[in-house]
């Protein structure tokens, strides 16, 4: 048995933040670190259940910036004030892509209340994280995870 899913569009995700009270917190609050906002997210999933108790899934996502921040301005030959007509330099953000991510997971239901999951993910980091300088270097990242879940 196989399946394919996809989603596109503007995402303002506050995950994992279950309560309404927590969704109203300011981004600088420690409980809201995992918020992804100002993003256009395109994601597709594919999965297969080769056995009754085994589920394998793969997903690929592309995230782009919905609205780039305004460029900051520096005045040439001025320290604190920018008088009218002063020569200025604009520093716009280099890119508009957060990155691309590939995730693969496999779950095995060992018993009715015991499940084992193993997964891997790879993020190709986008140019948005270079900020306003194309000479900034950003690296790609990966994740390998496994867990055993006991429900009671």
Supply the key terms.
single chain; 1 helix; mainly beta; elongated; 7-stranded antiparallel beta sheet; about 150 residues; two-stranded antiparallel sheet
What is this structure, in a nutshell?
By secondary structure, the protein is an all-beta fold.
Distance between the first and last residues' Cα: 28 Å
Tally of alpha and pi helices: 1
Structural class: mainly beta
Overall pLDDT level? 76
Order of helix and strand elements from N to C terminus: EEHEEEEEEE
Task: Identify the quaternary structure here.
Answer: single chain
Q: Uncertain segments of ≥5 residues (pLDDT<50)?
A: 8-34
Largest sheet: 7 strands, antiparallel
* Overall geometry: elongated
Number of strand segments: 9
Supply Rg: 22 Å
Structure description:
The structure is a single chain. The chain has 152 residues and is an all-beta fold. The protein is built from 1 helix and 9 strands; from the N terminus they run ββαβββββββ. It has one helix at residues 20-23; strands spanning 2-7, 10-14, 35-51, 54-65, 72-75, 88-91, 97-111, 114-125, 141-150. The strands form 2 sheets. Strands 1, 2, 3, 4, 7, 8 and 9 form a 7-stranded antiparallel sheet that branches. The chain has a two-stranded antiparallel sheet with strand order 5-6. The chain is elongated, with a radius of gyration of 22 Å.
Q: How would the blueprint of this fold be written?
A:
Elements: E1 2-7, E2 10-14, H1 20-23, E3 35-51, E4 54-65, E5 72-75, E6 88-91, E7 97-111, E8 114-125, E9 141-150
Antiparallel strand pairs: 1-3, 2-3, 3-4, 4-7, 5-6, 7-8, 8-9
